[in-house]
Amino acid sequence: MPLFLPHKKPGPIKPTPNPYPSRFQRWRQSVWLTFIFILLLGGAVRFYKPLYDPLEQILFEKVVFLQKSFLHPFYQTRILLQSAQQLVYLKEKHARLVLINEDLKKELQALKPLSHENKVLKQLLNIPVQDGLKYRTVRVLASPYDGLHRFFLIEGGEKDGVIKDQAVVVEEGIVGRIEKVGKYLARVLLITDLNSRIPVMTTSSKQKAILSGNGSFLSTLVYVNDISKLQVGEKVVTSGLGGIFPAGFPVGVIDSFDHGKVKVRLYVPFQDIEWVQILNLRPQEFHREVSSALEDK
Fold this sequence. Notes:
By secondary structure, the protein is α+β, with helices and mostly antiparallel strands. It has helices at 23-47, 49-125, 283-294, and strands spanning 135-142, 151-155, 167-169, 174-181, 185-190, 197-202, 208-212, 218-222, 235-238, 250-258, 261-266, 275-279.
């Protein structure tokens, strides 16, 4: 009989199934049952109109209320920032307007004695004084552009006393002239059109020229007596020659010199025009008188 018996290692313990489910398993089963219950309840409510419609309305109102409550602070903050930005802009604009107002006051004080002197000299020289220009205000109906010609269609025609070649202006300056007149409408040829030619002169160097349209908002000065006397920034006004545009109406300012061509930046914002004024002048009568004066007797 052996003194020592061989030792046998115990085998692995086999797990026995737990007859009681764990907490996680119970929770997972509850979630699934709740989800299935919600689906069944939602489907039943969805197809039962008397219950679904009021419930939908209540849920919608609650969601909208929550959205408003959540977004309201952001909305008010944005309004506050916009108001602050607008306030800063208005303060800067007010400062600029104050400076401009002071400059205009100085110019007005300087022009008052000159105006009186001009009036007295005209009386001494027996120069006829032109009465104030009369005009009618009409609406711009359309501003078509066919690739070559630039013009406006305006409200007013023969029944309103509109005639061909009358000058059309706005507060900023010259817009163009009446090119064609219908019974109720008229067409205005803009000064930016390729066929537009306007007698003008510069204010500082007193150089007379013709403003030629080229289809863009930078017109060209042609037939200038002495280009060397012109300067960038010099103002350009109508000269009064031709009998269509009265003298002294603002046109634009010399913008640049491009290979011998004088470019003029126009004052009128053509894209924003809604109303224009037609000057009550009779250019055709003026042309007839000029033709009659030039005829050989």
